Amino acid sequence: MNSRYLSLVIFLITSSLSAQTIGTMQDLSAQQKATATSITLQGQQLPTGWNSDFRQLRDCCPKLAELNLSGCRNRELPANALFAAHQLRRLVLPDSLERIGKAALYACDGIEELVIPASVVHIDEGALAGMRGLRRLTILGCPELGEMALAGLTNLREIEVQSPIPPRCAANTFAGLQGKNVQLLVPRSARRAYRQAAGWRTLSLRASEQQTVNVDSVQILPIPQALVEEGGRLAMAQIGSVVACDALSNEREHAQSILNRLTTWRPRKGKGTLQLELDTTISTNPEAYQLHVKPGAIVIRGVTPTAVFWGLMTLEQMLTPSSPNVLVASLPTLHIEDAPRTQLRELMIDPARIFIPLSELRPFVVEMARYKLNALHLHLVDDQAWRMEIKSYPRLTDVGSKRTGMDDMPLEISGYYTQEEMREFVQFAARYHVEVIPEIEMPGHEVAAIHCYPQLTCGGREVPIRTTCGVSNELLCPGEEFVYEFLGNVFRELSEVFPSRYIHLGGDEAGNPALDCWTHCEKCEALKAKLGIPLSDRSENWRLQEYLFNRVIDTLRACYGKTPMFWYETDFKRIPEGCITFAWRHGLTAAAIRAAQENGAHIMLCPGEHCYLDYPAAPGDMPEVNWGMPVTSLEQTYRLDPSWGFDESFERNHLYGVAGTLWSECIPTPERLFYMAYPRAMALAEAGWSLQSRRQWPDFQQRSAFHLRALFTRRLLRP
Questions:
Q1: Catalytic residue among 445, 602, 610, 707
Q2: Same domain as 295, residue 169
Q3: Which of 305, 338, 371 is at the close of a domain?
């Protein structure tokens, strides 16, 4: 076979794989989905239920650039249908379409032109928001446009609307667009009507004038311990400067930024001040603060710089307008006294399954701080990848950070954090008083490391990096001395990068139910004999894990002054003294609390019933996956009571905090990370901060809706 003929054959095979005309997605194999660049769907009615055609287009076709739905008879493009499908370049919608659902095309930022069929009568909230690559939009009919439906289209240059009647829209439908940049093409006879219509008037040929508002009702989340309104007002123009001691220089910079971005304030001499003060007499709680808005000044006092910063975050929330491109001119006078209920309020992010660049984690930290979440827990390693540079073992990232596939998503996944990058990120987070806590799993969930260094597991078996979720039988070998050398070097380098008080050791799913990795290992049998453990009884394998943990814990404490953390399992018959355990399994929180009490340990609550934020927030919501997930609703998250029905002594002596988990098996984009986290992270923040007596679900619903709109606006209008 000559080379020209061979090239033709390869071209024809590739073309047949990459361009598909089908009825539904069920007509394609997994390989065809993985390689498809162009799909034309001609099914009369595409399924929209569990693991729908749209979910497969969104998550299982990473190379899809062109999608033609003109042959379909769907009346609705469902909510989140093609959410953050960055790879799409061209989309043709069905002529039968009547509704484009909430966030259906959110962040489809590769599409440059889009035609909305005349049949469409509703374009829901945020439906086309964040389509940053869109340059031309044609609307053939007269659909009603929801809030933020066309927000954040920063490169849009032309909108053609063929309706002589301006489609009804919200005041913020076009948030982020200015008429000086966008040409509006409408029927000649309707130009005046469009210039006068609500929402559409923002697309006049001159730039919109800056608007100001007077805040009448503040929306604070988490709700503070005490808030007293005093009946007066403070004009922001009265504030002339920010005054703070050198120990609060970071907070002074944040304060000036807040005033510049959100208010009519401008620096002046001889005017009132925003005063930032340290005051250790306020409380014994290091995060306690007071905020006083007076007719001529704002005073924030805190026990520590962290406490002052939380006061600033409360002030920033008070100054957040209900609409974009609006500055606050005045605030009501009031007095707040506040302090957190728990010490640690964290979110756990999992870059091991799907890598998350630090550039995307920085804005995540900023949003965490806004709601007084004070710890970012990074799950840096798992069976699917090793994401942290360890200079002693370069293969961990050279080899262990790359793979293709996560369950049925054929993504090419790679990336890791260099030590220098991570140091800078940790310093960035510290400016927002967010502590970055690293996690290195052991003895299970270590397949990526074992793949790179097979001597870490029993028998030195060579195993591939895992591309599916679930639990592997491969564990670190507690009888292998190289394991302790390896972990010692890893934690030495981690301690040089992460100044956090804590290091998380994982510890989950290594023996519940008992696994056989250690049962027939000669080195493990020798270790059992040395420790006096019955050789034939695998139910005693937990003692090998205890031995491994104790050696690592001794090193962490003696050499680096770290407090170890780990996931609670019923296998742990004894919780090592001074450790912090995490209650995470459905239905086992009470048992974990009793174990913490019996062992004199602290406990973090992240029970799956309330805190697994990677689960869908409602039936049918993302993620739709092929293995099923329970639902963790916003109300379920809010209903978390950190005391879990135990008495005051538990809360005083053992409760350490709350955590939300975002395992990333089904979080393939940064946009999905924010979508899964919020508003449930707001609910978790209030559960961890606010007194139970101050919390009311209906009130939270109202406040969180306001804050979710503000967060959505910030995300869309970010530079």
A1: 445
A2: no
A3: 338
